[in-house]
Structure formats: structure tokens, C-alpha cells
Amino acid sequence: DKEPSKAPDDGAYIKGLFVEGARYDRKTRKLAESQPKILFDTMPVIWICPAKRDELQQSPS
Fold first, then answer.
1. How much is the mean pLDDT over the chain?
2. How far is residue 45's CA from residue 43's CA, in Å, rounded to a whole number?
3. Of 4, 8, 32, 33, which is most buried, counting CB atoms within 10 Å of its CB?
4. Longest distance between any two alpha carbons in the chain, whole Å
5. Which of 56, 49, 51 is nearest to 10 (CA)?
6. Are strands 12-14 and 46-48 parallel, antiparallel or unpaired?
7. What is the DSSP string of 14-55?
8. Which residues are CB-neighbours of 2 under 8 A, at least 6 positions away?
9. Which helix (H) or strand (E) holds 13?
10. Percent of the chain's residues with pLDDT above 90
11. By its UniProt entry, which PANTHER family does this protein fall under (predicted)?
């Protein structure tokens, strides 16, 4: 995945995060079970966009 070349109009990009005991599946864009003998996996750049809670759409659980 390419890293952004400029700051977003709203929010921020964060990088350098990792997960322990799982992995980020780049094809499905979801967390998945870790591969054998691999304890950590890096996360892609994540866009954090601020929003008011009452303006967020509810997703089905």
C-alpha cells in the first residue's frame, strides 16, 4: 500500500502501529488469525477522522 503524500483535509494519518497475536489481512482489510510463529504484524497507515458521536451512522451488530 502507498503512503499518503500529503496531510488529509480533515483528521490525521497515523503509522507505526502493530498488532500482537493477530495479523492485518491486506486483501480483505480485516484482522485475521496470525501466521504460525509470527507474533506481530504491522498495520497500514490509518486515517483518523474526528466526528461527533450523534452524527455517526449506526452499523448493525
1. 90
2. 7
3. 32
4. 43
5. 49
6. antiparallel
7. E---EEESEEEETTTTEEEEPPTT--EEEPPPEEE----GGG
8. none
9. strand 12-14
10. 62
11. DYNEIN HEAVY CHAIN 2, AXONEMAL, DYNEIN HEAVY CHAIN 6, AXONEMAL-LIKE-RELATED
In angstroms, rounded to a whole number, what is the distance separating the alpha carbons of residues 44 and 50?
Answer: 19
Residue type, 41: D
Element (H, E) at 9: none
3-state secondary structure of 54: helix
pLDDT at 1: 62
Cβ 18 vs Cβ 40: under 8 Å:
yes
- Supply the pLDDT for residue 61: 67
Per the document, the length of the chain is: 61
Cα dihedral across residues 15, 35, 21, 33: positive or negative:
positive
